[in-house]
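Exercise (ungraded).
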Amino acid sequence: MSLDQNDIAKLARLARINIAETDTAELSQRIGDILNMVDAMQAVDTTNILPMANPHDAVQRLRADEVNETNQREHFQKIAPQTADGLYLVPQVIE
Amino acid sequence: MEWEVVIGLEIHVQLTTKSKIFSGSSTAFGADANTQASAVDLAMPGTLPVLNEQAVKKAILFGLAIDADICRDSVFDRKNYFYPDLPKGYQTTQMDFPIVGAGIVEITLSDGSTRSVRVHHAHLEEDAGKSLHEDYQGMSGIDLNRAGTPLIEIVSEPDMRSAEEAVAYLRKIHSIVTYLGISDGDMSQGSLRCDANVSIRPKGQEEYGTRAELKNINSFRFVERAIKTEVLRQIELIEDGGKVRQETRLYDSDKNETRPMRSKEEANDYRYFPCPDLLPVHVEQSLINELMAQMPELPDAKRQRFETEFGLSAYDAALLTGERPVADYFEAVASSAGDAKLAANWVNGELSASLNRENLSITASPVTAEQLGGLIQRIRDNSISGKIAKQVFDALWNQEGDSADAIIDNKGLKQVSDSGAIGAMVDEVLAANPEQVEQFRGADEGKRKKMLGFFVGQIMKASKGQANPGVINSLLNEKLGG
């Protein structure tokens, strides 16, 4: 499977990654290689094999429903670019 | 053309856990902004989610309540999108292996008929934070206290055919989750939120029409209005030669209209994939058995029991079992009063009217179940009449006494059954109304009955409502007959 420049541009937009136009050719080559490997794996006959969600032969450990985190807002907000009234401020988003 | 409406609902239910689904932060409502947002909730690098046992159990309980298959190895996935109230850049949710599989919910419509609505599945996921768009000139404020609150999203099949059915289904889900105690179901606080997929098709057509998704409708009333409004819009659009677009629309309750949300380009390309931070959740049969054993009596079973055990009408039983606190209150009143039908009348009548008037829920009722039960006992043993009972109820409501007995004593409201005292009042009334007495004696049997009411009324008035009507009647008959 190969990707053209438009596919790369779309993926970059979805991932919010800025990609220089001069890099797209190399990127489409590299991602294309990965997809070729995926194609190779998909050629394997997996009839009657259950999809595997995780390679570890283990199941999720659960935690008891207890509150054990304390308020560390001041600590966390020290590294925030902007805050007000305890809120993190971000460029306006309205849907 | 005759149109058929097709509706499917996606209902988000906040689970009543103390801590979040993947972290030990509190889920309490109403705390100061970001004081309940830990490093995990903020998606700080290096943090890992650890799944809350109670969230899993509560989801399974819901599944068992709707007779669904429980997925023995369910899987969490990442749903990728960028929005500031979702710090990780993805929502941890379930896609291919949700914890609750297909189930069934029975709904009852206002004409008493019932229908089944199929639930496609229900999955566990985390809630996002809140964005505040006003007050911060050109900026949005983000509060992540809600981020990571456990939710189940219950996805129905497109089985509903009217706004009324959709509301009945939503109410039923509300009733089930509150009976189970897995959610407080408070729509005003966002504990239960609903999106509706609405489409129309010519009656008889098999194929579904294009649907619009109505977002975040936050009350039972608005669900009905939003769907009705959207159906009318679609019918008009199609009959004018237009086409319904598949899109997300917001319901504006002030203007009673739906309008398209500005759709972001490629907004639906969520690129789901299994979450590598979480292992599959394995559910043992022993856990299912344990939860099955904890299952409380559910609304349908309770309604039937109220009909058979207490001899209530289907209507009364349905009213009393819609919400568990109401059902519990009623049962407490019935057992203390010793008369279930009177208890049902008072709970559905006077109490419910007073609660509605002051916009209170039954758990905040100023009159306790024991107090109301005590009041009904005094009606049953003829200590007070129904009319006086309402006065006593009002006094209990206004906290004028601890019990019906105390209020009856203090205010001297006890019914007078003493024939000597009532006899004196009867004599007085007869003496004061000689004309009516004359007419009565001259009237035939049929008319007399009606005329008797006049005298009973006068005597009741003279006794301030406290005279026993049975005694009045027998004395009147005796004295007038002579």
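Further reading is listed at the end of the chapter. For now, observe: The longest strand of chain B covers residues 114-126. Chain B has a mean pLDDT of 91.
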